[in-house]
Amino acid sequence: MTLLYLEDLEPGQRFPGTTRIRIEESRVTAFAAEFDPQPFHLDERSARASIFRGLAASGWHTAAVTMRLLVDSEFKPAGGIVGAGVDELRWPRPVRPGDELRVESEVLEVRPSKSRPEQGLVKVCTTTFNQDDEVVQTSVSNLVVLRRTKPA
User: Which residue ranges form the domains of the chain, and what is each CATH number?
Assistant: First the structure.
């Protein structure tokens, strides 16, 4: 595992995911029951009558799975994946039981911190795909990344 310091990152770099996670129906309904208890996340019959036309994972479930996949990916910023905020989060299509998700991240921007010379901010677009390479989530996040050395 090679840690990536701020100086190692530049716009356009891509980091593929190294694992996939299969979305099980029992996990969809368990997550929804605890965190997003809407009928289209809990019950197939209710879900068929909804805009989803079938059981769909909560977007927040997709976001949580994406985080796990991101941690397991080749993107290893020094200091960990420490979020400073999310500029954009989109779910263009539902995640269904049986889907297998994977991620890919792209560095959009790198900038040293003016107030904290030991770190900087990296803007990253993370895209989550299903097994058919359809996009199920995109996010643009700002991450705190350590610098290898403090500037003089």
Answer: 6-146 (3.10.129.10)
